Amino acid sequence: MKEVLVELERRRSNARKGGGQERIDAQHKRGKLTARERIDIFLDEGSFEEFDMFVEHRSTDFGMDKTKVAGDGVVTGWGTVNGRTVFIFAKDFTVFGGSLSEAHAEKVQKVQDMALRNRAPIIGIYDAGGARIQEGVAALGGYAEIFQRNVLASGVIPQISVIMGPCAGGDVYSPAMTDFIFMVRDTAYMFVTGPDVVKTVTNETVTAEELGGASIHTVKSSIADGAYDNDVEALLQMRRLIDLLPASNTAPLPEIEVHQPIDEPDHSLDRLVPDNANKPYDIKELIWKTCDEGDFFEIQEAFAKNIVTGFGRVEGRTVGFVANQPLVLAGVLDSDASRKAARFVRFCDCFSIPIVTFVDVPGFLPGTSQEYGGLIKHGAKLLFAYAEATVPKITIITRKAFGGAYDVMASKHLRGDINYAWPTAQIAVMGAKGAVEIIFRKDLGDPDKIAAHTKMYEDRFLSPFVAAERGYVDEVIMPHSTRKRVARALRMLRNKDLENPWKKHDNIPL
Ligand code: HXC
């Protein structure tokens, strides 16, 4: 028995060395941790149970039969985050550059299958060179098997990808089909084809960072949902995100104990909206003051900043926040903001996370660049997402709710459960200037008449009361009571029971 144990330990210790000390040192020199170090930081101490540590590739071409490494470039298994089960795979760049062989793919598929069967989140850590070139189609088939599993798990369990090194070729599409992608600044990059191929095909000269670094994917392409300065920070933030998410689409919302009362008025909110309707203010202040202890995990913070999306908690239970941001483009809805918020709303609806929407929106952004870029289709995504969502939906209009954007932003007509307005709300087809110039065009040369018409329009329409008279807002509330009203509404809606008609799936405008 003793010899067997010694042999097991020898094999284990050999597998843990991955591609060897030299490559581990090179990894550290680049500011990156190894796959196992990353797993250790992400999971609760001592909770990692590894699978398939001794799996090796089966390829023989190009002398590969002489270069087998236990584990084959990916470390897989499960563990816990604050006691809750999570499945994980982490690409090991020290072994064949983390590239994907048939055997490597089978290891990933195994944890994907187990995560789905056991209804627990799965997190993938990427630091890899794509398909194992020596394996050819066997590697391509391995990728497709992984993609298929991503799709089947979508909307059933949360899937999170963290890019901590290269992520190219076949490695990009699995993350792209997961719920969230996060990156590490300066060390991570993602692209379908790298700078060399780009140069050959298009004659463009770009660096890896310019083509697919965190600065591109969090700001321009919106592929990534956030970025962090180093591996440790990224992994600790992923623990925070996991804490906020339910384990599956049938699991209850995670709940933590909080000591912040909900019925303390916050009078600073009474001064949040400036007197001048054209002056901006920071909607995040309202989010921070609504969620427990101001703890807000923002999604896509650097992209389409005219809308804010992210998770917080109210009375210890997770809530998704969506809010127009008057500080950026006056909070207007454009294509990017619509796509960003639509995807977030759909995630919340998949996982039964209630949605709280704060509205201050002057409408959709006019112009050829928006129309040519498909604003109609992108705006429809957000409209569709809110309309199909059956989770509790609470909407508070703080100031402007103009035009189609009023309808889109979780209005009563899209089955909003609780729709409140602050006394400063202005719910109308458009602002006073535009409205008067259209309906009183004949008086445009007469400033007195125009001023009188404008005053009449403002008095009648730029308030919450026309909507309140029709029941489109349930009540006009004091800003200082917002947290309490939201918390009480969420409590009331805990047993909400609403189903859409049966269908194979919908046909959201993509
Ligand atoms: C086999 C690979 C590999 C690969 C890297 N390695 N990529 N082995 N298949 N795809 C090995 C290297 O030979 C090297 O081995 C070690 O990993 C580290 O690689 P380096 O090149 O030394 O590292 P670095 O300079 O940091 O460059 C990393 C890299 C580069 C940018 C990822 O290796 C690279 O460009 N690799 C190829 C990327 C690629 O084109 N992949 C195929 C994509 S096509 P040693 O033994 O020297 O340490 C694809 C199609 C799938 O994925 C489509 C499905 C939809």
UniProtKB/TrEMBL annotation:
| Molecular function per GO | acetyl-CoA carboxylase activity; propionyl-CoA carboxylase activity; transferase activity
The reply to whether Cytoplasm figures as a keyword in the UniProt entry is: no
Domain named CoA carboxyltransferase N-terminal: which ranges? 1-257
Q: Does the keyword Transferase apply?
A: yes
Which protein, by its recorded name, is this?
Answer: Propionyl-CoA carboxylase beta chain
- What Pfam families does the entry give? Carboxyl_trans
Q: Which domain of life is it from?
A: Bacteria
Show the taxonomic lineage. Bacteria, Pseudomonadati, Pseudomonadota, Alphaproteobacteria, Hyphomicrobiales
Q: Which GO terms describe its cellular component?
A: acetyl-CoA carboxylase complex
Q: Which residues form the CoA carboxyltransferase C-terminal domain?
A: 261-504
Which Gene Ontology BP annotations are present? Answer: carbon fixation
Q: Which organism is it from?
A: Nitratireductor arenosus
Q: Which UniProt keywords apply?
A: Transferase
Q: Which family does the record claim for this protein?
A: Belongs to the AccD/PCCB family.
